[in-house]
Fold:
Amino acid sequence: METIRFDYLKTFLSVARTRSFSVAAKDLGTSQGTVSHHIAALEEYFDAELFKRAANGVEVTEAGAILKETAEKILQEAQDAKAKISSAKQNLSGTIRIAASTIPGEHIIPSLIAGFQKHYANIKFKIKAEDSLNSLNSYKLTTLILQQWVPCKVLRKNLISSKWDKTIWFSSCHVIMN
Structure:
């Protein structure tokens, strides 16, 4: 084998996870012979034993542990690249401006955006985290996220609500989208 195939790496990771060729075959919807072939090809390619046969299945060898860590990264990078290419084909781009009260703006939204941007790399975000509604008035927003319920009369009085496509209020128990 001159190159490594993704399906061989997926097979390897399945065997490493399940500690069984037959369970990995079942999980992958293939035969145990195919799993054995994939592992043998990888062992030949790396010139190393990847699994030790044990009484209760198989165990990853030192070489197998190195491959496991690398294979996980390779498959994740391939998945990320696929998502980025798909996003580029859809040509989604632009900037989403979000205003949020301090807690969601500093502690919740950044991790949500990081996950979103793995799939839509051309979408940029600008976040303004502040608790004062009046100071948010001059910020050109796409979305407003507030930690507490603010009656619409108060919101309309302090801000021009038509600036937002979505307004989200949340507390520890409820999320309400407007």
Notes: The chain has two domains: 6-88, 94-177.
